């Protein structure tokens, strides 16, 4: 599925191909909570970096974040992510983790293309959620990241592939 997105001020736009366009997961790690400006973020839209076309790249900046095993920032954490954002309006655009090769992970809030509604929502890193966040009782929840990958989640539900 071709996804197009932009920042709030319109200086940065992108297009990219994704076989996993369902925003099914909410992350509550300290980085997602602090950078998203809310309870957490939907960052599970995996896309192929080789198809990423960026317009207004000169308006992007990168925040390099690390997580330790407690889900909080640490200078020499488990692995770093490069979170790309508009340096004018602050919109988080996508994340690239050095351990995940040519994949980028779009922040659902930056995607302008109407996204499909997921059949369920899972909640990750729930040990680190803010105390005021309520997770629906029947939603799947994980203290850390689950073993099931983004690709596997889509395939298991028959949702993987071009739309």
Question: How would you describe this protein?
Answer:
By secondary structure, the chain is mainly beta. It has a single domain, classed as Metal Binding Protein, Guanine Nucleotide Exchange Factor, Chain A. It contains two helices and ten strands, in the order βββαβββββββα. It has helices at 30-36, 150-156; strands at 2-6, 13-17, 25-27, 45-48, 53-55, 60-66, 80-86, 92-97, 103-106, 122-124. It has a five-stranded antiparallel sheet, with helices on one face. The model has no long low-confidence stretch (mean pLDDT 88).
Indicate the CATH class: Mainly Beta
How many domains in all? 1
Shape: globular
Number of strands: 10
Which parts are unreliable, with pLDDT below 50 for 5 consecutive residues or more? none
Structural class estimated from helices and strands: mainly beta
Strand order of the largest sheet: 4-9-8-7-6
The N- to C-terminal Cα distance equals 5 Å
Fraction in helix: under 10%
**Oligomeric nature of the chains:** single chain
Give the count of helical stretches: 2
The CATH architecture can be named as Beta Complex
CATH topology: Metal Binding Protein, Guanine Nucleotide Exchange Factor, Chain A
Q: How large a portion of the residues is in β-strands, by DSSP E? A: 25-35%
Q: What number is the mean pLDDT?
A: 88
Q: What Rg, in angstroms, do the CA atoms define?
A: 15 Å
């Amino acid at each position: 599925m071709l996804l197009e997105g932009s920042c709030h001020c319109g200086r940065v736009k992108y297009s990219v191909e994704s076989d996993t366009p369902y925003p099914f997961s909410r992350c509550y790690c300290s980085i997602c909570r602090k950078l998203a400006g809310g309870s957490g973020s939907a960052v599970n839209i995996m896309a192929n970096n080789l198809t990423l076309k960026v317009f207004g790249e000169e308006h992007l900046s990168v925040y390099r974040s690390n997580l330790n095993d407690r889900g909080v920032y640490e200078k020499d954490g488990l692995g770093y992510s490069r979170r790309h954002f508009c340096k004018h309006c602050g919109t988080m655009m996508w994340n690239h983790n050095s351990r995940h090769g040519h994949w980028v992970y779009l922040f659902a809030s930056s995607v302008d293309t109407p996204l499909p509604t997921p059949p369920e929502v899972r909640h990750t890193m729930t040990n680190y959620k803010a105390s005021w966040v309520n997770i629906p009782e029947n939603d799947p929840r994980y203290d850390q990241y689950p073993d099931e990958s983004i690709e596997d989640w889509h395939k298991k539900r028959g949702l993987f592939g071009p739309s």
